[in-house]
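Request: Have a read of the protein record below and say how the chain folds.
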Amino acid sequence: MTGPTTVVDRGRVLAWALWDWGSAAYHAVILTFVFSVYLTDAVGDGSPAASAALGYAIGGAGLVIALLAPVIGQRADAAGRRKLSTGVWTACTIASMAALFAIRDDPGYLWPGLVLLAVGSVVAELAQVSYNAMLAQVSTPATIGRVSGFGWAMGYVGGIVLLLVVYYGFVAGEGATAGLVGLPRDDGFNVRAVALVAAAWFLLFALPLLLLVPEAPPAAGRSARLGMVAAYRALGADLVALYREDRHTVYFLGASALFRDGLAAIFTVGSVLAVGVYGIGAGDVLLFGVAANVVAAAGAIAGGRLEDRVGPKPVIMGSLLGMIAAALVLLVVSGPLMFWVFGLALVLFVGPAQSSSRTFLARLAPPGREGQLFGLYATTGRAVSFLAPTLFGLFVSLFGTQRAGIVGIVLVLVAGLLALWPVRPPIVVARAG
């Protein structure tokens, strides 16, 4: 196929991908490496109760997302307001990030901080639903794989850059002041300032998408004024129709929920294993995180290019096999060097699996229903998000060693691989040239 189906506006692609770059401010800095640690270790005095409270807060956020995501996506499709929806939820995310500056290093601020973190998790995920649906607006059937891979890579690289900025600028060093900026550590001021920097970062890099990418037209035949209850009724009817029209889309949603849970668990427990099993120094974990993001970004770009030739399913299945193999090796080796080698080998396959999973659904989605399906994508992922962490903990408890937890993650990846095996792949339009 030639003509408009093989041509993309590179400026719009870049504007769209810069949102991924900016969103790393929340996912990498606030939720994963900096502010969640500040809440549990500093504000919560490092108590097990504080860590448990963090789990309850994020778990509650996941439940809210599971309930809201499909309807939010559906209504954005119907109204032709994907970009507006992305902008509104992005603004809410940025506001929740900036509000974290008020969370002082005092146990009385633990729950207010956790509530803000949970709210941020909800609105960030809802923004991601509409953002993912916009992928079809900036790509073509022949280029959707590489565009998605480029977006994932931008997210990884954005996380690398900002993590290095906040670490060396606001966190590193000893004494009363922190980092090159020299902010005081008292009352957690330097870490609270990181929340403001992260919020400003996300705002700056979200603007190009809002200014340069046009809005999608309303979906034909859909009301933009459905109430919440009516929207769920329409969603139920759409699910039944979707199953009747193409049940493989429903099968893919289930399979991807499994293997995406395994992917998430890799990042969730990776630093725990690095320190507790393989002897990586606590200060070197951040350096490994930077290297892992670089490798995952390279994998996402390479996987996206390969996908445009062979389709998303072979890329996902090959990536899952690669991750399973690397994890099994990690199960038996020891020492920092082995973790660096096989840990990076494992995350090399994470980027392609994430990117091609997104494009698999985008290729399957009927025009005008991308937001609804990406809402379901978020919901199904949240529905089993407990599985890999629970199995990790179960195997650790059964065998009395953290290393055994790897088996739990491997089982989830294998289940996802087996569930994906019979799913019919979408049609891939060959790229011209």
In short: The longest helix spans residues 228-276.
